[in-house]
Amino acid sequence: MSDIKKILIVEDDPASGFYLKTELESLGYNVTATVSSGLEAISSISTDIPDIILMDIIIEGKYDGIETAEKINKLYSIPIIYMSSNTDKKNIERAKKTAPSGFLIKPVKKYELYSNIESAIFKSEIDRKISESERKYRLLFEHMTDSFLYFDLSYDANDKIADLIITEVNEKFLLLTGMSKADVIRQKISSLFPKIESLKPDWREIVERIINDKATHKFRISIPETQKHFIFSVYCPQINQLAVIINDVTESKLHESIQIKNRDKILQAHQEITNILESIDSIIIGVNTQDIITHWSRKAGETFGISSEDIIGKKITNSNIKWDWMQIYEGISLCLTEDKAYALNDINFSNNTGDSGILGITINPIRNEKVEIIGFLIFGKDITEKKQMEAQYYQDQKLISIGELASGIAHEINTPTQYVNNNTHFLLDAFNDFSEIINSINEISTTDDYNKLSENLQNLKTLITEKDIEYLSSEIPVAINQSLEGLKRISEIVSSMKSFSHPETDKMIFTDVNKSINDTITITRNEWKYDSELITHFDENLPEIASVPAVLNQVFINIIVNASQAIKEAINKKIIKRGEIKIKTALKTHSLIEIIITDNGIGMKDEISRRIFDPFFTTKDVGKGTGQGLAIAYSAIVKKHKGTIQVKSIFEKGTSFIICLPVRQQEIIHEKNNIY
User: Fold this and answer.
1) In 144-235, which ranges are continuous DSSP H helix?
2) Which CATH number does the domain housing residue 84 bear?
3) Cα–Cα nearest to 65, from 9, 117, 130
4) Which of 28, 74, 27, 83 is nearest to 53 (CA)?
5) Helix, strand, coil percentages in the chain from 3-state DSSP, rounded to 5
6) I need a labelling partner for 249 at 20 to 30 A (CA). Which of 165, 396, 440, 607 fits?
7) 436-479 pLDDT, tens per residue?
8) Rounded to whole angstroms, how far apart are CA atoms 581 and 599?
C-alpha cells in the first residue's frame, strides 16, 4: 500500500485551485481531484476516498463548504481542513461544529499548508488507534459477566480523599442493582450507598491503601438479606481513578477464569492507550477540572527533569514546573472559556539542572461523551534548537549582506580616491616644474651682467617651452577641483555609512525616511550604477516617522538590490538596453507615509509574485539566493513597524513595491492587505 497521502481540493477559484495542486504535488502529495462545488466533492469521494480534504468555505453550488463538510462527515471519517479569506466569527462558529482538523487563512502559505496537513494526518492516525482501542475496550466492558464500575477521586481542600464519583458502569451492574445509568453516573458513592459510611475501618483509608500499594485488592462481601455473595476486586488503573469489578459468586465459580481473562483484556486495552500516548515524542500533560495532573508523558519528564512519580496527583498550580506561568495561565483560561485549542509560542522554560530553552505549546480541552469539558491536555515541543538555528541563519545572512555591501562601498571609495591620488601626483610634478621656472626668474632678477642676463632669459624661454606652462596653468585648477570633488564624494560615503549603521538597532527613534533612502542609495551605488539610472522624487514635507532605522535601511537595501538584479536579467535577455529605478515618497494621509520603489526589470509572473514573501522562496539558482531577503522585509514592515508592503509586477515589464508606514507606532493601520 502506497504511503503517499491523497488529497481532495474543494476550491471554486481556478487560480487558487491550480496553486494548491502545484504546491501539494511539490510536497509529495497525490491530488485526487480539484472540484468547485459540494456535490462534485461528494461525487469525487464516492469514487476515490482521499486521506485529507482541503475545503474552501465559500464555494459554488447549493451547499457552502461547511454544509458540504456536514454531509461528508455523516458518510465518511475524513479529516477536513477549511480555507477562507473571511474570518467572520459566525462562519468560524459554524465550522467548529464540524470538528475540522485545521483552519487556513487565505492566501495559504506553503509551510502552513504542509504543517496543517501533516498535523491532521498525524492526529487522524492517533485518533484511529485510540478509537480502535476504545472500541475493543467498550466491547469487552459491556459484555463482561461481572459488574464493572469506574470512579474519579474527589479531594478536599487538604488534598485528602473526600468521595468517589461514579464515571462509568457496565450493563451487568445496572442489572444487578436495578438502576439506570442516569441514576448512577456522576453520583457520589456516599450519596448512592449511604451505608458505606458505617464501614470500619473508614472506606477512605482502604482506598488510600489501594492507591499507595498500586496493587489489586480483593474483598469478599455477603448480603444476608438476599443471601448473595460477592467478591470485590479493587485497583487503581491510573492516578485519581478507581476501578471495581463485582463478581457474583453466589451460584458458582465456573466462569472465574473467563472473568479474569476479560478483566486482563480491559486492563490491556487501557495499557494500549497509555502506550500510544507514551510513544508520541512530545510533552503531554493531562489535567482534570480540579487542576490535578493525571498524565505526565515520558518526554515531559525528560524535558523538565521531573519524574511522573513526583508530579502525578499534584495540582498543576502547585507543581514546580519552571516555565512562563503568566502565559500558561492565560492559555489555560482561554482554552477553557472559549472551548477550543489554544497555541502558545516561544514559552521560556528551564529544567531542574538549570538548563533553559523554548517551548511551543498547544492547550486542548478534554471532553466526555456528553461533550462536557472534564479537563485539558497540554501538548508541547522543545523548539530551542530550531530557534537557535534560525537565529544563526539570520546572523549568517546579515554577515553575507555586510560582506557584499563592504565590497561595493570599497569600490565606491576607491574610484574618487584613485583620481585624488592621480591628481595629487600631477600637482606635485607641476609644483616641481614651476619651482624650476621660479628659480630661473630669481637668477635673472639678481644678475647685473648683461651678457649673463641675456643667457638667463634665453634659458627661461627654453624652460617655459619645455614645461608647457600654458598646459599647466589650465590643468592645475581642473586637478584641484577634481580632487576636492573626490574628497567630497568620499566624505558623503563615509557620512552615509555612519548614518546607516545606527548601533541601537532595537530602539524606535524618529527617522527622516528621505535621508535613509539617500544613504541606502549611496551604500548600494556599486550594485546598480553600471546598468541603471536611479531617479528619486522625494516629498520634501515628509514628516519624520517612528522606526528602527537599521531595520528600515535593510528593507530598502533588499528591494534596491533585487531591482538591480532584475534589471541585469532583463538586459541579458535583451528586453531593455538600460535600467531605471524610481523611488518616490509621499504623505498619503496625516498619519501614513507611502514609499514606492519601481524598476523596469524582468518582472514576475503571478504565481511567483504571490510567494515572494514566503520564507526560503527564491527564483535564483541553487547557491545564489536564500529566499530570506523579502521575507525579512515583510517581517520588518508588517510586524516590526505595523505597516504594509505590497508588490505589483508584470512579467518582462517591471515591478513596484508599495510600502506604507504609520507616522506613529500607536496608529495601527487597519487597511486590508490584498497582495497575497
Assistant:
1) 171-177, 181-184, 189-192, 203-213
2) 3.40.50.2300
3) 9
4) 83
5) 50, 25, 30
6) 165
7) 778 878 777 777 766 777 777 777 777 777 777 777 777 788 77
8) 5
C-alpha cell at 341: 485549542
Q: How far apart are the first and last CA of the chain?
A: 38
In a domain, 209, yes or no: yes
CA 275 to chain centre: 30
Sign, CA torsion 159/165/168/171: positive
Residues in the chain: 676
Strands 52-56 and 6-10: parallel
Q: Where are the alpha helices (DSSP H) in 232-348?
A: 256-279, 298-304, 308-311, 325-338
Q: pTM for this structure?
A: 0.37
Q: Select from 382, 416, 435 the last residue of a domain.
A: 382
Q: How far is CA 424 from CA 378, 412, 416, 437, 566, in A?
A: 74, 19, 12, 20, 40
Residue 348 has pLDDT above 50, yes or no: yes
CA atoms 320, 326, 328, 333: torsion sign: positive
User: Strand, helix or coil at 191?
Assistant: helix
Residues 449 and 564 in one domain: no
Give me the domain span that covers residue 645: 499-674
Amino acid letter for position 661: L
**pLDDT over 70 percentage in the chain:** 81
The phi and psi torsions of 4 (rounded to 5 degrees) equal -70, 125
Q: Where are the alpha helices (DSSP H) in 446-543?
A: 450-467, 469-501, 513-528
